[in-house]
Hints:
By secondary structure, this protein is mainly beta. It has one helix at residues 147-157, and strands at residues 22-24, 49-52, 60-67, 76-85, 90-91, 102-103, 125-134, 158-168.
Amino acid sequence: MSLDRPQAPDPYARMPKVPPFTLTSTDITGGEPLDKDFSVDGANVSPQLSWSGFPAETKSFVVSCYDPDAPTPDGYWHWTLVDVPASVTSLERGAAVPDGAFELKSSGGTPGFEGAGPPEGDVPHRYFFVVHAVGEESLGVDDSVTPTVVAFNLAFKAIGRAVLVGTYQR
């Protein structure tokens, strides 16, 4: 079996344009490999994230981690945290769900964060950690929807976006 295939495009280049803001991490350096702690091979915990410079009218956030390089037609969602209150502007490593927010299942059916786990021997995968600013307190979905449904809603409701990309290879 060969996993040879073209690299998937930047998934957020296909989304409606919204103003950018800043996403930083004490655990991730943009474009660099993720530490094993953030993979299924290690501690399998979410990294520390902080964001700033989002639109003043922000009322909530959606935080996600997406791998467009998974050998599937639709990539792989590793984490989706919905309805994060606007007062929350950082998450610690291995963070609990903030009050008022909820997590969806990953593409693998795991509740909460599922660390990087690309097929062994595959090319380095990109992990897009993204925070979307939303101009409403609730995105209007519940925990029964898929991350793809959340992304669809964000096409209409996001008012800002911050992106930080790490890589991982086995």
